[in-house]
Specification:
Elements: H1 3-14, E1 22-28, E2 34-42, E3 45-48, E4 55-58, E5 62-66, E6 81-85, E7 94-99, E8 104-106, E9 111-118
Antiparallel strand pairs: 1-2, 1-6, 2-5, 3-4, 5-9, 6-7, 7-9, 8-9
């Protein structure tokens, strides 16, 4: 097994293991297909403030998932729903988000990042 294959295999522990970073994530595809798995959920994102050029932390969740655990991978432009825990607890209430921008793929070592925004229900 080469190093990249070993890293991908290790994602089962580093991203998915509920004893480490793994939190329950539910992906719902545009046609209603549901995938329930564990992944890393970060609740804040670092961005550069365009006015000051300084880093700022904003409350934008990012979900990192192991590509090989997905039965279908979100593509740029598709409208997916993503349910994540409100807090970093596997038992927390899940809230629904939408994918905010094109997924960021780490094909070299087998993961995908989804940048989320809170879903807004329309009447």
């Amino acid at each position: 097994m080469n190093l990249r294959e070993q890293i991908e295999a290790d994602l089962a522990e580093s991203l998915e293991n509920p004893d480490d970073y793994g939190l329950p994530v539910v992906l719902i595809s545009p046609d209603g297909e549901v995938q329930e798995l564990n992944g890393q959920v970060l609740y804040d994102t670092k961005r550069v403030d365009p006015e000051t050029g300084l880093d700022m932390i904003i409350p934008t969740p990012v979900v990192t998932l192991r590509r090989s655990s997905l039965t279908r991978i979100p593509l740029a432009g598709e409208k997916w729903a993503v349910r994540i825990p409100e807090t970093p607890s596997s038992t927390a209430t899940k809230t629904t988000h939408a994918i905010e921008r094109a997924p960021e793929e780490g094909k070299s070592i087998g993961f995908i990042r989804l940048y989320l925004k809170k879903a807004v229900q329309t009447p």
